[in-house]
Structures
1.
Amino acid sequence: MPRYNPAVIEPKWQAYWESNKTFRTPEMPAGEKVYILDMFPYPSGAGLHVGHPEGYTATDIQSRYWRMRGKSVLHPMGYDAFGLPAEEYAILHNVPPRVSTETNIATFTRQLKDLGFSYDWDRCLATTDKEYFRWTQWIFLLLFDTWFDLEQQRGRPIAELAVPADVVAQGQDAVALFRDKHRLAYQGEALVNWCPGLGTVLANEEVIDGKSERGNHPVQRMPLRQWMLRITAYGDRLISDLDGLDWTLGIKKLQSDWIGRSTGAEVDFPIVSPSEFPSWQNNRIGQLFQDSIPDDVLRIYTTRPDTLYGATYMVIAPEHPAVKKVTTTDSAAAVKQYCDAATFKSDRDRTDGDKRKTGVFTGAYAINPVTFKPIPIWIADYVLIGYGTGAIMAVPAHDERDFEFAKAFNLSVECVVEPPQHESDRDKILNGDRCFTGAGLALNSGSLNGLGTQEALDRIIAELTANGVARQAINYKLRDWLFSRQRFWGEPFPILHELDASGKPTGIIRAVDVKDLPVDLPQLEDYKPHGRPEPPLAKADDSWLYVTIEGKRYRRETNTMPQWAGSCWYYLRFIDPKNSSAIVDREKEKAWMPVDLYIGGAEHAVLHLLYARFWHKVLFDRGYVSQTEPFHKLVNQGMILGEVEFTGFKTLDNQWVSTVHTEKGETGFVHTKTKELLSTVSVADSEVTKVGDNFVLVSDPSIRIDSRAHKMSKARGNVVNPDSVVSEYGADSLRLYEMFMGPLEATKPWSTTGVNGVRNFLDRVWRLMVDTHAEENRLVDCIQDIAPTAEQNRVIHSTIMAVTRDIESLSFNTAIARMMEFVNFFTKETVRPRQGMESLVLLLSPYAPHMAEELWQALGNDHSLAYQPWPNFDESLTRSSEMEVPLQINGKLRAKLVVPADSNAEQLEHAARNHEKLAEWLDGKQIVKAIVVPGRMVNFVIK
RNA sequence: GCCAAAGUGGCGGAAUCGGCAGACGCGCUGGACUCAAAAUCCAGUGUCCUUAACAGACGUGUGGGUUCGAUUCCCACCUUUGGUACCA
């Protein structure tokens, strides 16, 4: 047989697997199941990136391993294909997004198949498939049909929502609007990034410094009718259910911080004159705190109601509805100017860079409901309209932000929490010259005086609740999910807006009947934005846009769903991809869920995983899935960087500058002292050397050189294309290399010589078994049907043991190292027992499946090894009869001792005391203590 | 600023429980084979000092600590990477 040639072997086995449907998954698991899932890719025009095969190989190894261990394995692949790039491409080239998407999917599929992944391709799906998004729309309708019962903490059908009698009395339309307000999918006004220059709405990521990323046009924030999903209702469950998941603590914390639950109180501050206050207060006593905010108050949210006595001013967000109402005529001009400026800043810009506080006084005052004193109402953009009530009480003595603002605008600071004795700067704090945010004893706080922070908190909430001016409240940093996009290439909403005789919306909406799903996208001639903040679907023909049902005319919803929608439930569809009567068959769902192992990039740690968990919980509440959580174990693979590069810096007159004297300026790297712009120069390996911890120029060691791996990017020109790696080294080498680079979770640099190294290993495996000099298929003569020697057995069985253990703990790099040791050992053996060779082939098969199949065939087997039982090991054969034990004196290694492996502590100590090399160390010394760990070491403590 | 992860040879990395630091691979050096080269095979390869050799000292970002013994545990600090950004 000839030399190892992946270009021949790999297509051969890919064709074999495909035509034999080797990896077809049964409808229902037979015996134990395991569901192993990749985060499916967005099929971009650039094709597969070397980052993709990293996670995909890891899951493929797991899948192939568990098949050989006899489990039913579900291992599917699909495409997250709705989204912006296809639409941008359409605008640029006038190609319908569906066409470019299908081209890209074909490329991705070809590339994935070239890598030999064992997906059940019959289950492949794309979120853009009509039969798929039909069910995405169906789930939206389920969200639309669900309200959240706070008492029961679960979603229930909208029909079960109790409608108050006074609403019922107002008639059918009132009832409909009441229900619409409680649905998990509801319409609301939300601020969007409207870019008049581009004539479109932009995502937050597309806005940089208040300008559009493309074209640098100003972007304005304006409210627009949007579909929202009430994810906040599930906030508590999304936090508490993290407990049972096998995810890293880091990701769990990230999610729980993102949800950001806080507890505190809502408090009403009346906007009345001091003389009106007593009557306002009297009216409130004994009253229930209302959901709707009365006209004469500012409602605030605080986590520290115990500091209420220290509230010396109030701040409302520039977008707060009360701005117009409270602003006095004298302040009107300044207020308008400030608020207008704020609309041109995104949340991010407001907080970016220096944190100098800005604000403007409204001229108005509110009454502090505990001190009864009037306090000024300010407008400042450090208060966000989207959190809490969009208004705060400012307690500068005990909140850093308020303190900064108070100092900037010379507002009074009153200390109401006495810091503990050990706190530094106590006097300053008590004088209001420093801010203190910790817990302490209440001070200058009426009935709270002397109470600890927690007691004061409980007491004040109780008092104010009794007085009808406050109530306990919970808030989340997490906002309701803005679910609509003013884009073409997404799922249309299955929603109709009723029109009156003149064609105006009546405000009444209805869901498209389930039997009429899917609502397909209309054909459009032109995808370009039209200059109004309105979605492109509004340009569809009337035949698509308008619908008449039971004599009423409706206009279709023209927003589309965001890219997240399709990825929220694809893991369910893989279980039953062809089902035409349900999202997934309930029995199959019960049998296959949850996903046992989910591997993907860390960039989805928050949003995708949070959104999918939310949908899953709604499906659970409504009885469509059997478990509360979809993804049992989650692993994030690390990023693969480009090759390590050495970079030096030079001035314009070509003088080297050591990296010690460089820093990042606005337009590039500059000299620390002169601020002169420097050019970066790539330096060859041979021109640098390491001195101490740094690399320096060989020609001038005073010049330090930067050494690092950068993210792969087109601009830098360090992108590695998997296709070219496959054609040069083979898919098995690529797979093996990506697993050998280091731990799966780690960020690691690419290295072409490293790929060469694993290819070299595969060549050695080949030559271990195949006679490369023979013309025909022939094994080497060393392979014999003979029992392994004890030493060979030790290698065989300890390799099986280690590789098995490492595969289960996802430590693929060390598993490969063990197989290399195996090959190094047997290469030297002139007699190679067939059984040992077969074990190696099976161990290697999840990593390098093509080569393994080829060798398996060469060893005389006539069908695929995909379901061949995983080799067993006998632990007793891994142990040798003798072992080497280190001997230490005072913890330092001084000698080594060969003893029978089963020596006990006594024998070990005895042998150690008589070891001739230790004699010189022990001579004239006294052994104070002997530490003997059988099978490990001996240590004598001497004096 | 805050949160998280990580710092080990020339490089990527390894080291189940606190017990021989540097497995495995790359690179490098030498040797065998060859007319020669490639390929392959074999051997060596942390630093320093010394030696004919054995041996020895130092060594896992830095500084402390706990321990018979620390890459591993504790404290403080430095650096890098990723995330986050006034959430009251």
2.
Amino acid sequence: MTINQMISEDEVALMHHYICEGIGDAKRLRLLYLVAEQPRNVTELTELLDVTQPTVSHHLRILRERGLVNAERDGTSIYYTLGDPRILEAMNILRSFVADKTQEA
Amino acid sequence: MTINQMISEDEVALMHHYICEGIGDAKRLRLLYLVAEQPRNVTELTELLDVTQPTVSHHLRILRERGLVNAERDGTSIYYTLGDPRILEAMNILRSFVADKTQEA
DNA sequence: TTTATATATTGATAAGTGTCTATATAGAAT
DNA sequence: ATTCTATATAGACACTTATCAATATATAAA
């Protein structure tokens, strides 16, 4: 059970930077789920995402800078993986919340 | 343990709407933590947030429309509470991730 | 050293949104 | 009814950012 200690304004700012700005876009959320399934390179991710390659690289940079994904080069390709299992863990909790919300209607 | 089943594009869109748009702002993240501590009315939240009352109401509306907070009237005041414990649960997991990241330096 | 492929960066633009002031609405009290 | 307090809404503006086309960089192969 996690402790609910009062959070400081500074810590909120950090969380905003790492998390809110990190997953604050639908494409990036999708990217996180895709690289959580298996390592994927930029070309694969571009084919799956319906945006241009520079846009994918842009999103990956944002995720990478925050440690939400890791990048590893293999030849000319760069394979991306999930940066931390807690990311998926938290997303799945939120996913179950959303699932309940949308079937409340 | 949560199951990591492939997520559809539609589900990503829903998650983006409920979660990313919901917590995609530092003030709203702060609001969620504040109402998680205890029920608070708009006046209290305004004093704690360093923005105007209409701005607080604006953020609360976004949170309320997504079920991230609940609103209950008591006289002229309206008290806000956390909409679902899973919100805090997920936030705390992400909080621990951010804590680790920021002390890696 | 070219050539080809994969990824990243730059600069521009359009769309979205957080914030404010001003105003409206709702409930309680006189 | 009027006044007061609490909250919500409307409209405007500044700022951010997602996206694209064009270009640069990096690795591998010929």
